[in-house]
## 1
Amino acid sequence: MRRVTVYDTRTRESRLFVPLTPPKVGLFVCGLTPYDEAHIGHGRTAVIFDVVARALRRWGYRVLYIQNVTNIDDRLIARGAEQGVDPLKLADRHFQAWRDDMTALGVRSVNYYPYATDYMPEILEQIATLLAKGFAYTTQGSVYYDVAKFPSYGALSGQRIEMARTGTRIESEPGKRASEDFALWKAARPGEPSWESPWGPGRPGWHIEDTAITVRLLGARYDLHGGGIDLKFPHHEAEIAQAEAATGAAPLVNFWMHAGMLNLRGEKMSKSLGNIISLHATLERVGPEVLRFYYLNAHYRQPLDFVEGKSLEEAREAYARLEQAARRLSEARGAATGEDGEGAELPERLAREAGEAVERLDASLSEDFNTREAIATLFGWARTLGERMPELGDLGPGALAELAAPFDWAREVLGLFGGGGTGAGDGPLGPAIEVALAARARARGRGDFAEADRIRAELLDAGIVVEDEGGRSTWRKAPPRIA
Ligand SMILES: [Zn+2]
């Protein structure tokens, strides 16, 4: 396995990445609250962590990549009420549209997308533990986390509690002891979807699903947590406070990776600011590779200022130059039908340069996933080929493959040059299917057969057939579907 350094937001330094149980890597990234159409800012985070997972897998790490789906929350309930739609159905519809966009965008590294509501038993159990340990209190059917009981609250973001107070949304939450306390369980209001709990009917707060899911699937501690920088406070602080208090193990996460925002006119792209550019429409307009190129041609931790009518046009032109070099080479490879060893050998210097380019690409990614530097190397290689292309006509397939190696690398790791694939997923399937089957077994156990059927249908969609026999479920890969 390659030596990798990762910048950790919590310790504010680049450190050698050592997984807890190599070669396994647990990766969790905060997913969508699918109450509306996704925008290109969501796409940026998705592509960044797709590349992180692809690179780690290339280097021999076995990444289990989980991204949750917040399918119940205030905004979903409000939007559902506006549209007269069940919020859970609304979430499901937007999430399916997101999956289609991810497939188109070549984001295929996520192993499992758990729905928050599939983990209700884990959520209830974690809240009960926090209450039993004195980190939470109940009031009027709701449960709140008592932030004063967790002294290191704020350490991740460098926020002090006094600051946290001013940054906290003023909410009408009667019975809350301090404004920085956050809801673990919200008492149901009339007409809202609700679940039974020891504290009365209600639904989970925003933060608890993440740690209920990760403690269950990745353990009390895991390797990598990703998300947008806007989630650092309070969401990720809350995750740390919940999990570390509940399990007693610390730190929850060895490396926190935060992606920069995509800004439009100097502001974070967000529905509430009304400065949204649709991911789906952009994909249709410029295609997945130009968009991936645009995202990756910047350091992931830097903010990216999107300029309408300029950013994607520049990306399109730049990518076209690279793509042309890659295409000329693959056309030459297609035409070179001879056996290896036929045709001219590669000049030794060029062969060495190709190998060095691949090494530089891996080196850039292994130092905190510097995709921008990798793209500069690809441009350098395209230039080298452009200068020497006329003499390449007689080369044999082996020699051409050596020359194409840097582009093959970009296909595998960056998902460019046709490397987005069909979205069928290239992660190891086993662990992801097992966790989906466990969720389905729990749904069946509590008599929620609609949910069990939904999970089965989702697996079938991913090419996995589930069979139930004698109280046990087994799975196999479905034969390829013929369109
Ligand atoms: Zn989250």
Note: The chain has a mean pLDDT of 89.
## 2
Amino acid sequence: MSQNTNIFPKEFQLMRDYIEESCGIHITHEKIYLMETRLTTLMIECGCESFFELYKKSQEDKTLKIRDRIIDAMTTNETLWFRDESPFAIMEEVVLDQMKERLLSGKQQKVRIWCAASSTGQEPFSLSIVIHEYLQKNHSLRKDQFEILATDISPTVLYLAMAGRYDHIAITRGLSDRLKERYFKRNNRVWELDSTIKNMVRFKKFNLQDEFAILGTQDIVFCRNVLIYFSDAFKKDVLKRISRVLRPQGYLFLGASESLINYSSDYDMLRDSRGLFYQVK
Ligand SMILES: C[S@@+](CC[C@H](N)C(=O)[O-])C[C@H]1O[C@@H](n2cnc3c(N)ncnc32)[C@H](O)[C@@H]1O
């Protein structure tokens, strides 16, 4: 058994490999504590006395429920409104203008945006707020010309996102008072998102290991703050597959700490005064 942990090296390896095979999340040995803190309650709840037993029980469970709960527990769901600001400013000031041109010229009928790891909804709902505000200033466009698909592997975060209800802490993180007053209604301790903004987003449970083609061609992909949890090989694979679902010259937005360097040459890096974004070649 390693120091400061109740997990034996062999069972850590088994569980680590199982998690990576199931969802791509790569857990290094230094993160053994993370596995322990996140899976111990589940281990006890499932009537197991060790991580090895939990692993075996999950393997034997044909319903895959235990596997899904392991994945759910191992995901990091940190998010906030308008995270990093620049992707949303670039959308508003650069990308939507281009999309407008394509829609008005009849080159395309719809703009499709995929938010690939949407967590509790702040990212796709920030996007729907940006689009909604853009439409208020651009009357030649219609709401039904924009589709936002938000996916995540974790059923817990999807459930929260679909409700569009946030507590006091979540509502203050990244959201201005103006937008809060405009798009949320307070109901005791809960802030409820306006249905106009909420209904612009369609949520779906989706594992980034699965085939992207079923999601259809996309104009813009937000794949932010999720690749950091994956191995280098899986990062490359996800980026390659995103490049294939993007329309020619479609856009990719990554998290502020993420970059394509060493992972993909399928995109051009675009530098804007507000930040970086990528365009498929
Ligand atoms: C840190 S959050 C990022 C949320 C949002 N994109 C942002 O930047 O604020 C990472 C999300 O990725 C999801 N995730 C992790 N592995 C995934 C996978 N294999 N497929 C789909 N979603 C995954 C997690 O459930 C989590 O909600």
Note: The chain has two domains: 9-74, 86-280.
